[in-house]
Amino acid sequence: MKPTESMAANVATEMTEPFIQTENLTLEYGQKTAFANVNLGVNAGEILALVGPSGCGKTSFLSCLNRLTDMIPQCRVKGAIRIGTLEVLNAKINAIALRRKVGMIFQKPNPFPLSIWKNLELPLREHGIRKREQIDEIVETSLQDVGLWDEVKDRLHTSALALSGGQQQRLCIARALGLQPEVLLLDEPCSALDPISSGIVEDLITSLRQRYTLIVVTHNLAQAKRIADQVALFWVQEGVGQLIESGSVKQIFEYPQHPLTAAYVTGARG
Ligand SMILES: Nc1ncnc2c1ncn2[C@@H]1O[C@H](COP(=O)(O)OP(=O)(O)OP(=O)(O)O)[C@@H](O)[C@H]1O
Ligand SMILES: [Mg+2]
């Protein structure tokens, strides 16, 4: 093979390899298998929407990716997860460092009961960033990134709990962004918000595409269609969550391969 051909082949391989890849990922809570044998890839810089009926394992799946599952007694994760070059389930990796790389946002905004400033400063300090100028800069940039800076710059030292639900959710996203993650996992990030705040957070999520790789769990199919590059559908079959189908938004919504996907996207099931 000529050098140029081999280089082209390498580039093609790099471009097609997903940034996040799970292999036969299975999660058990004691005797209960939440989901089994999930093989799912997410490309760098894309948004994957994870959808499916309640109890099919969406939150459990996200929790594996930054090893929050380590904190649940009786929880066992089998299979493999690769994020970039990192083997996530390798016992030797530093879970704290992993969670810096792979941030998580929950359905209910969960700011610390502290000032807006402290909410952003605390995780930075925990990760060894202590210089005041550096913290100042990250606080401002993160708040700019989520469109909150102008709204809160004059009240940085007042309680984060006085912010509206939508502002609190954006603050939580800013808190994750301050740590310069590569991946953001968002578990129904808009579902506890009023429609206007939900729209603002949705636009924010879309604006993060390309800079980060995102997985967004949502029950809102219209939202999945608007924000996602790829969609994955989970479903409980014989008591166990399964990945039924994944593909581009067009495939899932217009040309579903599996009857359950067709039923789900038309609202006939789920
Ligand atoms: N800590 C736990 N211990 C035992 N079982 C659990 C635990 N967390 C979740 N489960 C079970 O695992 C299955 C998957 O739950 P999970 O919360 O991941 O579903 P989900 O798709 O996120 O649902 P929802 O859409 O309602 O948020 C469910 O049957 C749930 O009851
Ligand atoms: Mg859930």
Spell out the blueprint of helices and strands.
Elements: H1 3-16, E1 20-29, E2 32-38, E3 41-42, E4 47-51, H2 58-65, E5 75-83, E6 86-87, H3 95-101, E7 102-105, H4 116-126, H5 132-145, H6 149-152, H7 165-177, E8 183-187, H8 195-208, E9 213-217, H9 221-227, E10 230-237, E11 240-248, H10 249-254, H11 259-265
Parallel strand pairs: 4-9, 4-10, 7-8, 8-9
Antiparallel strand pairs: 1-2, 1-3, 1-5, 5-6, 10-11
Helix pairs in contact: 4-7, 5-7, 7-8
The protein binds adenosine-5'-triphosphate and magnesium ion.
Query: What's the shape?
Result: globular
Tell me the CATH architecture of the domain at 20-111 and 183-265.
Answer: 3-Layer(aba) Sandwich
What is the total tally of β strands? 11
* Class from helix and strand fractions: alpha/beta
Helix/strand order, N-terminal first: HEEEEHEEHEHHHHEHEHEEHH
Largest sheet: 6 strands, mixed
What is the level 1 CATH name of the domain at 20-111 and 183-265?
Answer: Alpha Beta
Strand line-up in the sheet with most strands:
7-8-9-4-10-11
Task: Flag low-confidence runs.
Answer: 1-7
* Rounded average pLDDT: 94
Cofactors and ligands: adenosine-5'-triphosphate, magnesium ion
CATH superfamily of the domain at 20-111 and 183-265, called what? P-loop containing nucleotide triphosphate hydrolases
Computed Rg? 19 Å
Estimate percent helicity: 25-40%
